[in-house]
Amino acid sequence: MSSTEYPTIADCVGNTPLVRMQRMQGETSNQILLKLEGNNPAGSVKDRPAMSMIRHAESEGRIKPGETLIEATSGNTGIALAMAAAIKGYRMVLIMPDNATAERKAAMTAYGAELLLVSRDEGMEGARDLALAMQARGEGLVLDQFANNDNPRAHYESTGPEIWQQTGGEITHFVSSMGTTGTIMGTGRFLKEKNPQIQLVGLQPTDNSSIPGIRRWPREYLPRIFVPEAVDLVLDIDQSEAEACMRRLAREEGIFCGVSSGGAVAGALRLSQQVENATIVAIICDRGDRYLSSGLFEQ
């Protein structure tokens, strides 16, 4: 018998590549680097907080083996939690708007999660309300990525340190789409502790845009983990701009990702036009294969 201790799938979350953009940035004194979170086992940046929220809930005695977990999701967190629940042996109930892509729904059920759908009009707000109502009825525990500090904690403990190490501390700007805001809150806190001069740039959709994973929340639904003053600059990204950048990333850089990642890179490119000699890191939060049925890549 070999004495080698092999990793589990949970051990493979994180330590994702950081690659430089080669063609789209054009002539510039800046360096734009992209963190490929689609390389995580379940395919997105959300693998990090999913494992973190379950692991810390276990260590604090808030959940026990065999219990039911509930979460509202637009897609990536649901897939990541479905994977985490499969690893840990929990029943996972996910609630999401019915306009999510077929690939996202299929991935969640492939991991064994149960899916409840709300209407597109109810949206994520309706999904979040239903999750809390189910918890109040004793039907399971809501992990609540929007208010759970173990969400940004995952990025403070992993994403931030990885970026700092991978750039040799040379990062000047961090660009991230904002949904739950866990990525920018946790990563940003770590980076600011290392160098307060690093600028944190968040992306939100324009008023009439619908971009999976990026939200402009009504005030009553604003994630409790979000600290607005911690973000140095917020850029509004139009849906068409995010989608066009997503398609360009695939065709010009060989980076196959989703719409929110296209938005983050569009923001990084816009930022690059305003600064010099900067090292800009943007998050590529997932892979493009979970958007194929939407037809977005056919244009």
TrEMBL record:
Q: What class of enzyme is it?
A: transferase
Which keywords has UniProt assigned to this entry? Amino-acid biosynthesis, Cysteine biosynthesis, Pyridoxal phosphate, Transferase
Which biological pathway? Amino-acid biosynthesis; L-cysteine biosynthesis; L-cysteine from L-serine: step 2/2
Catalysed reactions, as listed in the record: O-acetyl-L-serine + hydrogen sulfide = L-cysteine + acetate
Q: Name what cofactor the protein needs.
A: pyridoxal 5'-phosphate
Keyword Amino-acid biosynthesis tagged: yes
Which is a Pfam family this sequence falls into? PALP
Key word Transferase present in the record?
Answer: yes
CDD domains with a match to the protein in the record: CBS_like
| UniProt cross-references to InterPro entries, sorted A to Z | Cys_synth, Cys_Synth/Cystath_Beta-Synth, CysM, P-phosphate_BS, TrpB-like_PALP, TrpB-like_PALP_sf
Q: What is its EC number?
A: 2.5.1.47
Which residue intervals define the domain Tryptophan synthase beta chain-like PALP in the entry? 10-286
| PANTHER family per the UniProt record, alphabetical | CYSTATHIONINE BETA-SYNTHASE (PTHR10314)
Membership in a protein family: Belongs to the cysteine synthase/cystathionine beta-synthase family.
UniProt protein name: Cysteine synthase
Gene name in the database record = cysM
